[in-house]
Amino acid sequence: MNSKEIIKADTVLVNAVVYTVDKNKSTAESVAVKDGRIIAVGSNEETGKYISESTEVIDLEGKLLLPAFTDSHMHPARCAYPYFFQIQLRGVFTKDDYLARISEFVKENPDTLFYEGGGFQRSAFDEVGPRKEDLDAIVSDRPMALDSVDGHSIWVNSKALELAGITKDTPDPPGGVIKKDPQTGEPSGLLTESARGAVLDFLPPVSKEQYKESLLRLQKFFNSVGLTSCHDAIVTYDPEYYNAYEELAGEGRLTVRYRGSWLITPEMVGGGEGQSADFQPEMSIDEAVARGLEISKSFATPYWQVKSFKFFVDQVIEEETGFMKEPYAHRDDNWYGIKVWRQEFLNETFRKIDAEGYNLHIHQIGDAAASYGLDAVEYAVNKNGKRDSRHTFVHVQVIDDADVKRMAELGMNAVIAPYWSVIDDYYWDLYYPYLGPARAFNSQYPGASLMKAGVNTSFHCDFSVTEPDYGWALYSAVTRTQPKKVFKMEKGPDAAAAVRTTDHSVELKPGMVGPLGSPNECMTIEQAVEASTINGAKADFLETEIGSIEPGKLADMVVLDRDIFKIDIEDVAEMKVLRTFFEGKEVYSS
Ligand SMILES: [Zn+2]
Fold it and tell me: How many angstroms separate the alpha carbon of residue 61 from the centre of ligand 1?
C-alpha cells in the first residue's frame, strides 16, 4: 500500500501515556481515531502517517489516557429526575440537616402538590427510623415521601399515610414493613420495601419529557467523571420511561451508552415466597417475559438496548431483609431475612429467560440468597445447556466460597460497589450490629476472591445510592478504606476529632473509619482499572466495542490529570478527569 492509500484520521492524540487495558496490558503513546473508531494505537511516529491537513492533532502533554469508564448497575432515569428536580438530601448526614433542606425546598416550592425526594441515610436515625412528626411540622396539608439513599424505604408524613389508608391496624404486606411507634403502635413514618407501594401508587407520574430532560442533565455529569457506558438495572413497562431513552438515542443525543434490564417481581407475576394462594398477579410470568422481549425488539440503536431481566432474590441487610444463612445478630427471634421467590418458580422463570438468550441481572445481598439464586441459575443452565450467558449477581455483599466457585463455573458476572467495601459510620450503625462483628468484618464484598476464582467482576455505583467517582472507586477497591475526601465530607465538622486509618493491622473500634477485612480482598490498581473498564464492557457483552483502547473499537476514552499507576494510592483518590471522549467526540473538557 502506498502512502496515498492510507486512511486519514479525524483525530490523533499524541504525547499521551496510553494504558490500553488490552490482553497484554500494553502501553502506547498515541491513538488515531476515524469515524468514532480507533484506527491505530502506537508511538507518535506510528500514528503520524494517519495525519492529514484536516486531522485534529491533540497534544496530551504526557497525561494518562484510559478507556472511558463503565458502570454495570445503576438507576439513571429513575433517579435523575428526583436528583435534579426534587428534595435532595444527599451530601448531608444528620436529621437536623435533612430537616433544614426539606424546609428550604418547601419554602422555594410552595405550590407542589406532592413533595418527593430522597437521599437520607438510615444510619442518621434509631432502629425505628425517621418519624412522620418531623415532616408534619414542615408540611401537614399535602403528602411528602422521601426515599432512603439505598431506595429500600421511604420516610413519609401523616398526610401520605392518610392518603394510602395506612393506620395502626394495617398489617405489614408480604415483603415489607410498616414501622410502628413502639409505645403507641401508630405508624411512625417509615415504610420499607413492598410497604412503600401504598404511598408510591399516589405519586404523580413522571413524563417522558421529564425523564429526557433529566437524562440530558445526568449525562453531562457522567461524562465529567469519565463515564460513557451504563446499565439501567430497573426498566419498567412504562412507555414514558423506556421511550425516553429510545427517543434520545434515536435523536442522536446520548453521549452515554445504556443497557438495561426489565424488572420482574412477585408483586407483578406471583411466585413469591409466602405470597398467599389467592394472590392475583398483574400478569403471568410468561406474559411478563414476552412483553419485555417484544418491546426490546423495538429499540433501534446501539445506544439503548435491553437484553436482560432484573430479579431480586433478597433485599438489603440495613432493613433486615437481606437473606442470610445465619440469623441477624441483633435480634433474638432467629430472623434470617427475606427470601423473595419460591424456588421452583424461580427455576422455571430463569430457564425460560435463559432459553431466549437473554441475561439474568440478579440483586443478591445475603449468602442464603446467593445459594438459592445459584440453584435457579444452575437449573436453567442444566436444562438449556451451557452457553456464553453471563448471568449476573449484583452487589454480592455476602457469599460463601463454594458459591463464588459456582459463579465461576456458571460463567457469571459479579458486579460490586467498591465504594461500599469500607468501614464507615454505616458499617458501625448497621452491619456491625446486624451481622455481628466477625461476619461484618470478614465476609463482605469479596472482590479479589471473585476475580481470583475467574468471575468477571465489574463495578457499579448504583446511582443515585452513590455518585460515580472513579478516584474514589479505584482507591476503595485497592485499600477497602474510605478516601480522605469522603471521610471529611461525611464527618463534617467532626472530622478533626474522628479517627481514620488505612492500616489493616489496627484494631478498629466503633466510630473509627478504616479498612474492611480481609486485606486479601484488596485489588491491585490494575485489577480495579479492569473492573472499571473492560470487565464492565464484558458484563454487557460490549467487549468487542469498548473497554480497551485497541484498533477497531469505539473511541471511548478518558484523560486523567495524573498517572494513577505511578503515584501514592492516597493521591489516586484525588484524581480528576480532564477530558472525556465518546465515540471519538470530546464530550467533556475540564
Ligand atoms: Zn440498584
Answer: 39
Report the separation in Å between the CA atom of 349 and the middle of ligand 1, taken as the mean of its atom positions. 21
Look up the pTM and report it. Answer: 0.90
Tell me the CA–centroid distance for residue 151 and ligand 1, in Å. 8
In what order do the strands lie in the sheet containing 37-42?
37-42, 30-34, 11-14, 56-59
Q: What is the pLDDT of residues 440-474, one digit of tens each?
A: 999 999 999 999 999 999 999 999 889 999 999 99
Cell (9 digits) for 381: 443452565
ω before 52 within 30° of 0 (cis)?
no
Residue 91 confidence class, pLDDT cut points 50, 70, 90: confident
Q: Please give the Cα distance from 447 to 522 (Å, whole number).
A: 7
Residues 97-107 as b/e (b if ≥16 CB within 10 A, e otherwise) read: ebbebbeebbe
| Domain span holding position 21 | 3-68+546-589
pLDDT over 90 at 490, yes or no: no
Q: For residue 42, what pLDDT is reported?
A: 98
For residue 513, how far is its CA from the centre of ligand 1 (angstroms)?
25
Domain-terminating residue out of 140, 168, 200: 200
Q: Is residue 60 part of a domain?
A: yes
Ligand 1 centre from 565 Cα, in Å?
Answer: 30
Determine the distance separating the centroid of ligand 1 and the alpha carbon of 118, expressed in angstroms: 15
Predicted pLDDT of residue 48: 96
Number of domains present in the structure of the chain: 2
Q: For residues 45, 50, 51 and 57, what is the CA-based torsion angle, rounded to 10 degrees? A: -80
CA of 472 to the centre of ligand 1 (A): 19
Buried b (16+ CB within 10 A) or exposed e, 282-319: eeebeebbeebbebbeebeeebbbbbbbbbbbbbbbbb
Read off the CATH number of the domain in which 47 is found: 2.30.40.10
Per-chain mean pLDDT for the chain: 95
- Rounded to whole angstroms, the Cα distance separating 380 from 373 reads 11
Residues lying with their CB under 5 A of ligand 1, a single-atom ion: 233, 462
Report the separation in Å between the CA atom of 301 and the middle of ligand 1, taken as the mean of its atom positions. 24
Residue where one domain finishes, among candidates 200, 226, 250: 200
Confidence of residue 4 (pLDDT cuts 50, 70, 90): low
Backbone angles phi, psi at 400, to 5 degrees: -70, 155
In the reported structure, the alpha carbon of residue 215 is separated from the centroid of ligand 1 by a whole-number distance in angstroms of 17
Pairwise CA distance, residues 555 & 550, whole Å: 9
Residues whose CB is less than 8 angstroms from the CB of residue 445 and which lie 6 or more positions away in sequence, other chains included: 396, 397, 416, 417, 418, 420, 421, 516, 521
Centre of ligand 1 to C-alpha 86, Å, is 20
Tell me 444's DSSP state. Answer: B
